[in-house]
Design brief:
The complex is a heterodimer. By secondary structure, chain A is mainly α. Chain A has helices at residues 2-30, 43-48, 53-76, 86-108, 110-116, 127-137, 142-172, 194-242; strands spanning 174-175, 178-179. Chain A has a two-stranded antiparallel ribbon. Chain A starts with a helix and ends with a helix. By secondary structure, chain B is an all-alpha fold. Chain B has one domain (2-182). Chain B is built from nine helices and no strands. Chain B has helices spanning 2-15, 26-31, 36-63, 72-94, 96-102, 106-109, 113-125, 129-157, 169-184. Classes of the chains: A mainly alpha, B mainly alpha. The interface between A and B is large, with 39 and 38 residues.
Amino acid sequence: MVAQHKYLFSETMKNFEEAARYHEEFIKGLWKENPVFVAVLGMCPALAVTNTAINGLAMGGATLFVLTFSSLLVSSFRRYIPKEVRITTFVIIIATFVTIVDFLLQAFLPAIHKELGAFVALIVVNCLILGRQEAFSFKNPIRLAMVDALGMALGFTFALFCLGAIREILGNGSLFGVSLFGPSFEPWIVMILPPGGFLSLGFLLLFFNWLKQRQEQKQSLVYLADTVAEVAEKKDSIISLKRGV
Amino acid sequence: MAADLLWIFISAMVINNFTLYYFLGLCPFFGVSDRISTALRMGLANIFVLLITAFCAWFLNTYVLSHAPYLRLISFIIVIASTVQFVEMAIKKMSPVLFKALGIFLPLITTNCAILGLALFATNKGYGLLEGLVYALGAGGGLTLALVIMAGIREESKLLEIPKVIEGTALNLIIAGILSMAFMGFAGLFSTS
């Protein structure tokens, strides 16, 4: 009876741990290891097509499709892919899914396909996708690899959407094609042109650096205050000892 | 004909600069641009691979892909990567000096988006062999130009006192943004589109 309980308990704990692991692998791509804002990967699509929020979302969606299916395939064949030719195999798998998504977009969303142009095909050389295959899918079981791929791709999509939204609002005064400020708004045209891509990502990274630095300063201040309080407490007790209370 | 070629060359080099207008080849642009000499060698290696790419793309498009257009991406990548590898071996054998100067960059470049980008753009524009080669020369020249300018600015900026919060990628991106704005000025060079 006790043994059974123990077994059940350990099973539940294992499940909890596993769930926590899945959760962690999923969450990390969204913010802590965000591919664009933290790792600065896949900059070519992140800057080239984010002149509107819709384009950013479309590119993110296409990348999500390619990354998830490539991870699925690489992870399921990871025991059969010879180590020496793994990169070539990854590239062929990725290129296959990119071709699929290219034709799908062309068939169902021709307007968006025209806007994105050759950059859909260029998803093949997005270092984020190849990097995830090499760093994660090739070494992990299928479900974990899928969770990691989904998290990373959603983080990528989120970053692309942010960039696209910022550039569209500043450069065109609209979001998703809906005008926000009325006719008196003077658009900052350069933001939807190529320089705007560099500038908006640069200033976003600057903002994140600033946030991080402030947080670190705050933490060191808290630590300092704690130490001071501790010393003060000890001082009190020493004084009271000296007085012989 | 000659005017057309010149126009293709200049357009690819400064007006539609691969790095600053199309955002292609950003990894080397930010990764190996801290010294001018390295940047220049990287740029030359890029020109070299781009020329091979233009030739491969033309060959595949004329003789293979008209029968199976859906294999375009896969065949571009594999053929370009393996051709570069073969040429690398040949250079190693024939000219060790050249190999020493460019060799370490070649494996890095083959998976670069500028390479595949050139092949795709040349295909979309329907360029023939000569036009493709000139286009590659222009694109490579543009990449080299951007790399060297960036490296020059970064060499100078090492002597400055930069606030810690902007150091690194953020600063490089903002410099690139300003460079890109400067290159926008070339758009008025030709009145025809």
